[in-house]
Amino acid sequence: MKAIEIRNKYLEFFKKYNHTVIPSAPLIPENDPSVLFNTAGMQPLVPYLLGETHPAGTRLCDYQKCVRTNDIEEVGDNRHLTYFEMLGNWSLGDYFKDESIAMSYEFLTKELNIPAEKLSVTCFAGDEDCPRDTVSAEAWKKVGIPEERIYFYGKDDNWWIAGEEGPCGPDTEMFYDTGKPACGPNCEPSCDCGKYVEIWNNVFMEYFKDKNGYRKLKNKNVDTGLGLERMAMLMQGVETPFDTELFKPIMDKLSELQKIDNIESRRIIAEHLRSSMMITCDGGRPSNVDRGYILRRLIRRMIRHMNKLQIDLNELSTLIDINVDNLKEMYPELEKNRKDIKDVILAEKDKFVKTLNHGEKEFEKQIKKLEGTKVVPGNIVFRLYDTYGFPPEVTKELATENGMEIDMQEFEKLFKEHQEKSRQGSAQKFKGGLAEQTETTIAYHTATHLLHEALREILGEHVKQRGSNITEERLRFDFSHPQKMTPEEIKAVEDLVNEQIQKDLKVTCEEMDYEEAKNSGAIGLFTDKYGDRVKVYTIGDFSKEICGGPHVTHTGNMGRFKIKKEQASSSGIRRIKAVLIKD
Ligand code: SER
After folding, report:
1. Residues 110, 57 share a domain
2. pLDDT tens digits, residue range 36-51?
3. In DSSP terms, which residues pair with 478 in a beta bridge?
4. Residues framing ligand 1 (Cβ under 6 A)
5. Same domain as 464, residue 539
6. What is the mean pLDDT of residues 530-546?
7. Are 73 and 95 in a shared domain?
8. Spatial distance between the Cα atoms of 202 and 172, rounded to a whole number of angstroms
9. Residues 19 and 149 in one domain
10. Is residue 104 scored above 70 in pLDDT?
11. Span 327-342, mean pLDDT?
């Protein structure tokens, strides 16, 4: 069964059980500065898991594009991926454990025809924060999983939270027995010998964790996640995701182009190329900070491995075409952005190629000096990064090839110092995690709507939002406009926004069909981001915008709006940074 068939079956199945199919959010989260990319299907749904009502109802399902980069160095083995697709279904205070488990079991055994005896499940063993999950275990028994294939584990295995804070809860996980021999008498699903493969995780999100501990959420929610690539691999009876149709065409082409054979390098190239293309497609651009730096690392590591296999770098364009052609049925946006994706990735290649050879020579020179030692000091790793643009994993690989290690700790220290110096340190964010909406961020969110409308009134209707980002300290707003704003225009926009704040306008929210929202004159951002039902936020008679919320109820207490910076973001796009000052 091809991946797209699994995806379609999944969405159809949950539709049958009254779930609304919602679109995948872009990889780059809107208004959540605490994470670099969507790392799970639940991420765009956090406000709803915390209690906001979702316009599409209380039963949702989707496929979500995800990027996880914690294991970037592991890519090249037979299972790690940085980009993957997660199928998910959610109950927002609707059904809970029994129904969720019954549906999962039915989907696996009836739709995917997995023999029941190949399935084992795990449940939460219980601790001082949350009782043993006997309800899930009983639900599994009821559908037909015998007691001896139900395992109980603690928080390390059967508790799910994104990062350190946020909605969370005990989970029950489903494992597929590959039929490989057990590695020993104690081989269980928690063992990573490869006999058992985790295929689905149902999280019963009824808690919220912050630094003060756990508290109950308003609703008992269900959040499930099924990794598509892994399921495709199992359904096709192949050993790795690279042997599925998702990677086969690109892997075959790499075999044809390479002059030196190395399966790990081929996998790294294939994986990093798909990941870079998906990130670029959703608006990511290589840079030295945050998500731009992740993209840069992916592209550069891929280039180095192309070099290692002596693949002509001019072939990159063909490789991109092969991937677009192969994946466009699943991701039509790849076809739409084919040219952009190529331009961005090829430009980054050109940039890196200029320093790659010099950097490799420099590395060789340095290790000659280090003769006798086994560790490349952090300052050399940093110099290669800073002067030659070598991501640390590239230097690490060069070191490994020379029987050495790198002092990653020292590198990270220098890297952090450097990042902080340029005021944009983001080491925290590499870990992931979710921010709770605070009074301040909610006010900034509403201010973004006021700013959007004010810009349209002062500069003209050609102004369209192209992105936004909110922190506790400020809002950032990107919009289309061909030239720099004059000081008079900036002042007029500020005044117009402040006028609306002073009027203490009421903010109301209505749910309606997407088409109806558009016809009502509501403005929005990315059209293909929305589902059929949307929320429309109206601020007095000033602004009407499609948005997930949340927002302030009245504008009165937001503070005084001040634009701190107006600058170019990219060609034809301006960027405003603004603050709300509480006088
Ligand atoms: N949030 C859970 C996960 O990522 C289930 O969707 O595994």
Report:
1. yes
2. 899 999 999 999 999 9
3. 467, 575
4. 40-42, 88, 160, 201, 203, 223-225
5. yes
6. 88
7. yes
8. 5
9. yes
10. yes
11. 97
Strands 543-546 and 533-539: antiparallel
Query: pLDDT at residue 506 above 90?
Result: yes
More confident residue, 137 or 365: 137
**Is residue 418's pLDDT more than 90?**
no
Cα(224) to ligand 1 centroid in Å equals 6
Interval 513-538 mean pLDDT = 78
Residues 208 and 260 in one domain: no
Is residue 505 left, alpha or beta, with left meaning phi > 0 and alpha meaning psi from -120 to 50? Answer: beta
Pairing assessment for the beta strands 507-513 and 533-539 based on DSSP bridges: antiparallel
For residue 162, give the ligand 1 atom closest to its CA.
1
297 plus 225 within the same structural domain: no
> pLDDT tier at 525 (50, 70, 90 boundaries)?
low
Domain count, the chain: 4
Provide the token pair at 276: 């870079």
CA 226 to ligand 1 centroid distance, Å = 8
Contacts of 171 (CB under 8 A, 6+ apart): 124, 158, 159, 160, 201, 202, 203, 204
Instruction: Tell me, yes or no, whether 273 and 380 share the same domain.
Output: no
Where among 315, 342, 369 does a domain terminate?
369
Position 542 scores a pLDDT of 95
Cα–Cα dist 138/120, whole Å:
14
The tokens describing 291, both together, are 């998500």
Span 392-416, pLDDT tens digits = 988 998 999 889 999 999 999 998 8
Tokens of residue 355, six digits? 């320093």
Residue nearest to atom 6 of ligand 1 (CA): 225
Residue 454 structural domain = 439-581
Query: Alpha-carbon dihedral of residues 378, 384, 385, 388, nearest 10 degrees?
Result: 170
Q: What is the residue-wise DSSP string for 60-75?
A: EEEEEEEE--TTGGGB
CA of 126 to the centre of ligand 1 (A): 19
pLDDT of residue 528: 52
Instruction: Please tell me whether residues 35 and 164 are part of one structural domain.
Output: yes
Per-residue b or e along 549-577, where b marks 16 or more CB atoms closer than 10 Å to that residue's CB? bbbbebbeebbebebeebeebeeeebbbb
* Percentage, residues of the chain above pLDDT 70: 96
Last residue of a domain, one of 345, 369, 393: 369
Check if the beta carbon of residue 474 is closer than 8 Å to that of residue 574: no
Output the domain CATH number for residue 81.
3.30.930.10
Of 223, 193, 211, 295, the residue nearest 49 (C-alpha): 223
